[in-house]
């Protein structure tokens, strides 16, 4: 019994093994049959693409060589005009004659420098002192006096012409002694500006009225402009 069973098993096994090999060999054949046309198509495409992409050799014509001449830069431009500045001629300068000598201006220092042309109150009799009205008849305690005299300068235009002249300068004084309303009456108009300026720069002590500084009016100052005869 044991031998019969073993023989049956052995005869069936080889038949099953032969069937699997036949199946595998037939599959490979079909795969090779399918790959062969694809390989041929791919090889044909590569051949066509190689023909399209191939580039023929390009031979360039040799270009002629140009030999450049040496270039020399010149600072002189024939189209540009050159201006030569002429040398200035020497001018013979003559020494001008000396200006006329000027003498010190006579301001009449020895004379009373200020002339008060206003009214002076008359003396009141002693018997009528009690009837004196201080508001109506003010008493001047002190008349304005100069502290710094006017120092006029001879006008150069008048000196060059040899012109002499005289001026009478009228003015008023503030409560601080400053001149104002200065008017100059001169023999020549060329002296008026300097005459006014010199009096405006002068300093005065103001007049005193009832113990207080007050404005004063009606003053005049004589000025003379003289050239030296030397």
UniProtKB/TrEMBL annotation:
Domain TonB C-terminal, first and last residues per copy: 139-230
Subcellular location: Membrane
GO (cellular component) term, any one: membrane
Pfam families, per the entry: TonB_C
Membrane topology: Single-pass membrane protein
Gene3D superfamilies according to UniProt: 3.30.1150.10
Keyword Ion transport: no
Name under which the protein is recorded: TonB C-terminal domain-containing protein
Listed GO biological process terms: transmembrane transport
Alphabetically ordered keywords of this record: Membrane, Transmembrane, Transmembrane helix
């Amino acid at each position: 019994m044991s031998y019969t069973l073993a023989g049956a098993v052995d005869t069936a096994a080889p038949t099953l093994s032969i069937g699997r090999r036949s199946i595998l060999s037939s599959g490979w054949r079909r795969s090779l049959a399918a790959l062969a046309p694809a390989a041929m198509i791919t090889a044909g495409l590569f051949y066509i693409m190689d023909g399209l992409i191939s580039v023929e050799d390009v031979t360039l014509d040799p270009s002629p060589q140009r030999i450049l001449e040496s270039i020399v830069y010149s600072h002189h431009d024939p189209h540009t005009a050159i201006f030569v500045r002429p040398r200035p001629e020497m001018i013979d300068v003559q020494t001008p004659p000396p200006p006329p000598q000027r003498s010190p201006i006579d301001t009449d220092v020895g004379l009373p420098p200020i002339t008060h042309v206003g009214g002076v109150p008359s003396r009141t009799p002693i018997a009528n002192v009690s009837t004196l009205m201080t508001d109506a008849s003010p008493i001047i305690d002190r008349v304005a006096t100069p502290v710094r005299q006017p120092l006029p300068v001879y006008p150069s235009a008048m000196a060059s012409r040899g012109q002499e002249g005289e001026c009478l300068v009228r003015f008023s004084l503030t409560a601080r002694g400053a001149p104002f309303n200065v008017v100059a009456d001169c023999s020549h108009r060329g002296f008026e500006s300097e005459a006014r300026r010199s009096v405006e720069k002068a300093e005065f002590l103001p007049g005193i009225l009832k113990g207080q500084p007050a404005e004063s009016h009606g003053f005049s100052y004589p000025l003379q402009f003289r050239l030296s005869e030397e």
